[in-house]
Specification:
Blueprint (H helix, E strand, L loop, with lengths): L1 H14 L6 H14 L3 H6 L4 H13 L14 E11 L8 E11 L5 E14 L2 E9 L1
Antiparallel strand pairs: 1-2, 2-3, 3-4
């Protein structure tokens, strides 16, 4: 099962022509981190504070989940971008923030939770990365 998710992630990245945009990186992060619960793949898309959060989470989960193991069956999750904002440049650094609404449903399709997520992206040496993410 984990091989299938790894192959799917790789094919997804290869199939799309230019994934080095703030929008694409935010979408890939949401898909891998929230929908697939794949911290290792999300880690490759991160930098700075986002990397620190993911690494800490991987350490917390290492006793209950082997690296690359998707864990138990995930509930159905849908996500939709609800906003985008270009933050003020500070010291020539541009941050682009994306707002998403996550809808989590149980096996019969009933919505059980909703979450709002903010993904902050930044261009790091020519590569767009997720530098922070937060839920509310």
């Amino acid at each position: 099962m984990k091989l299938r998710y790894a192959i799917l992630s790789i094919l997804l990245l290869i199939a799309c022509s230019n994934r080095n945009t703030p929008q694409a990186v935010a979408e890939d992060f949401i898909y891998n981190y929230y929908k697939l619960a794949n911290q290792e793949t999300a880690l490759q898309l991160s930098y700075g504070q986002a990397t620190e959060k993911l690494e800490a989470e991987i350490v917390r989960l290492q006793d209950v989940r082997a690296p690359g193991d998707p864990g138990p069956e995930m509930p159905k999750m849908e996500y939709k971008q609800t906003g985008k904002e270009v933050a003020n440049e500070v010291e020539n650094i541009e941050h682009i923030l994306f707002d998403y609404k996550l809808t989590i449903k149980n096996s019969v399709g009933t919505t059980t939770h909703t979450r709002n997520v903010v993904i902050t992206t930044e261009n790091i040496e020519g590569q767009w990365k997720v530098v922070n993410f937060d839920e509310y």
